[in-house]
Design brief:
D-Maltodextrin-Binding Protein, domain 2; single chain; five-stranded mixed beta sheet; about 20% strand; about 35% helix; alpha/beta
């Protein structure tokens, strides 16, 4: 199986080489997958949790652009002089979602505390998981709800996958994830968090390609692609520098 090991090594090496092939390299929160692929089908993407991607950049991974579901990570890269000042990208809504048939009959947050309910969250350090835990901590049934967590996933798309496969009764995902699930899951409770996303150019990458990608994202067509994917507009103008 030496050929297989060589192939894997080649793929890993290519993923770490930044935009040397002429493609812009984007490190982005997994919830941006469908929208960003529509905005630039030719780009090289690395989709994962925002914290995981930020850690990779801190460790020297080569990217041209970083987009985060939690501005905290983008601000940290800026403070560490690894990226330019982050800019406001778009907003999202964290919702309680269930499989289409809703076998556990979940209708409200309190239902999650019932015995036997299987709840899936994104892991701590993943923005979707952190937003959910903060909201549940303020709920009167928070401890009982958290006791029903059966799985903590590496990113929000993995939470969505559990719901689509019927391996969980409920989970917290973004409204954009519900849209891309194409009816396989549905939201049953209004937004418990309304996070803003940040985007920035990573230092040491290809500035021209990074700038061109940001122009696509902030164009009318780019913003419409984000809205079609289930994201929502923010109170301020997209593209504004974040403090």
């Amino acid at each position: 199986m030496k050929w297989h090991a060589l192939l894997v090594a080649a793929v890993v090496a290519t993923a770490g080489c930044g935009g040397s092939s002429g493609q812009v390299t984007i490190y982005a929160a997994s919830s941006l997958t469908e929208a960003f692929q529509e905005i630039d089908p030719e780009a090289r993407f690395n989709f994962a949790s925002s914290g995981q991607l930020a850690a990779q950049i801190e460790e020297g991974a080569k990217a041209d652009v970083y987009a985060s579901a939690d501005p905290h990570y983008a601000r940290q890269l800026f403070r560490d002089d690894l990226a330019e000042r982050p800019r406001l990208l778009v907003a999202n809504q964290l919702v309680l979602a269930v499989p289409r048939s809703n076998p556990a009959g979940i209708r409200r947050l309190g239902d999650l505390s019932r015995r036997g309910v299987k709840l899936v969250l994104a892991a701590a350090g993943v923005p979707a998981g952190d937003y959910a835990r903060r909201a549940l901590a303020a709920h009167r049934d928070g401890p009982a709800i958290l006791a029903n967590v059966v799985s903590e996933e590496d990113d929000v798309k993995s939470v969505l996958g559990k719901l689509e496969l019927g391996e969980a009764d409920a989970g917290f995902v973004y409204s954009s994830d519900v849209v891309t699930a194409d009816g396989r899951v549905r939201a049953v409770y209004p937004a418990i968090a309304n996070p803003s996303y940040a985007i920035q150019i990573v230092r040491g990458g290809n500035d021209d390609r990074a700038s061109a990608f940001l122009e696509r994202v902030f164009s009318r067509a780019g913003q419409q692609a984000l809205l079609r994917a289930g994201f929502v507009t923010v109170g301020r103008r997209a593209g504004e520098p974040l403090p």
